[in-house]
Design goal:
236 residues, alpha+beta, two-stranded antiparallel sheet, 8 helices, 19% strand
């Protein structure tokens, strides 16, 4: 697929161009995810489902379609064979053309991270400014669903993909009551995220990152139970 937009980072002066690019990226990333999911081994879903509290007594227990999307997302990033996840294997075995939209998205997927965020403000019909509650960085998230139903002060957990001057979610953000963040998420962060004497956060190994993400997701899903309402971006 040929690149229809400039690759150069530039100021966000044209919101329509940004939204057009975002919609194109979202469409391509959806197709990529379908391809990657098909390459997962059968054991990936039950193994990852157990870690997320979604697989019990040999049965996958899901309250809605958003939870299966969250499970597959976790499988793609954290189920490893030979030390590589599905994204890394795809890049090794069938890499897209350099500079293509597919390659840019895959590179963003490899640079993505799972965290807990607080909405700072809403950008109508576009997305929101979020503060990463682990790093305290402010990011610009393009997310139509969140712009329509989110609000300042909302706390969510989810994975974001960096694209230079903006980010995209991997698809679904899970809302959290602030009390759950304070009582349950902060202890998870303190358990996994360590800093050295200079205040620099130590990078987690792949195994620890998988465990950290699983605990965040499990607590987030349990907080809402069967009544969970997700922020799932399905803009096309």
């Amino acid at each position: 697929m040929k690149w229809p937009f400039s690759l150069k980072k530039k100021p966000q002066t044209d919101n329509q161009e940004l939204l057009d690019r975002y919609r194109h990226f979202r469409s391509v990333s959806r197709e990529l995810n379908l391809t990657l999911v098909k390459q997962l081994p059968k054991v990936a879903v039950p193994e990852c489902g157990k870690k997320l509290g979604l697989y019990k007594a040999g049965t996958l227990i899901l309250n809605n379609d958003d939870e299966i999307a969250i499970l597959y997302d976790y499988c793609l990033y954290h189920y490893r064979r030979g030390g590589k996840n599905a994204i890394e294997r795809y890049l090794n075995n069938s890499p897209p053309e350099p500079g293509s939209v597919e390659m840019v998205i895959l590179q963003a997927m490899t640079d993505s991270f799972y965290s807990t965020f607080k909405v700072i403000d809403i950008q109508p019909h576009q997305g929101a400014s979020l503060q990463d509650l682990l790093s305290h960085d402010i990011i610009n998230l393009v997310d139509i669903s969140l712009s329509e139903t989110g609000f300042p002060g909302l706390v969510v957990t989810g994975r974001v993909l960096p694209f230079g001057d903006y980010h995209m979610s991997s698809g679904t953000l899970i809302p959290l009551p602030e009390s759950v963040y304070e009582e349950k998420i902060i202890p998870i962060i303190q358990k996994f995220i360590k800093t050295d004497e200079s205040g620099t956060k130590a990078k987690l190994s792949a195994g620890l990152e998988a465990s950290f993400t699983a605990e965040l997701i499990r607590v987030s899903l349990q907080a809402g139970g069967a009544d969970n309402i997700f922020y799932t971006d399905i803009e096309t």
